[in-house]
Amino acid sequence: xxxxxxxxxxxxxxxxxxxxxxxxxxxxxxxxxxxxxxxxxxxxxxxxxxxxxxxxxxxxxxxxxxxxxxxxxxxxxxxxxxxxxxxxxxxxxxxxxxxxxxxxxxxxxxxxxxxxxxxxxxxxxxxxxxxxxxxxxxxxxxxxxxxxxxxxxxxxxxxxxxxxxxxxxxxxxxxxxxxxxxxxxxxxxxxxxxxxxxxxxxxxx
Length: 205
Fold this sequence. Notes:
By secondary structure, the protein is an alpha/beta fold. 25% of the residues lie in helices and 20% in strands.
């Protein structure tokens, strides 16, 4: 694989923001960057070339802060692979904490309750699954839906999204299905639609 085989590049032009997480970029002097990289903390990860820090990331509950110098070259395969790992781990870790908590909050609002909520990677373009037994599964990428997509979408008569509906509000579909049995004897009702936002292409490759 080469840098030209990647479908996208992660660099300071990347913008990712949702109610649950945000990626922030910071440009600092090269000497300061390398000095700060010497102080190890559990939340800090450092990418080095020849023993010198090129990028440093710090993850908190909601933010992923990436520090780099003007001389940092993002057009290299190894730095792209490292950035993908940092972004993936941050999204998964945040989703495992935020999504179940948000769904339980919506359960209380709608007076609909599910048996269990799990977060794991699902097939492409699937934003959630509701099983016949009342278990809901959400993908980590659901936590990256930007606020501009909240509240959009048309629903069919049974509360599930119609085939032509645009992106749905995060967790609104699973909550509407939480207290409902799947029709037609289906074991699982697929809940999720294609989203063309860049955020889909940046995740979990």
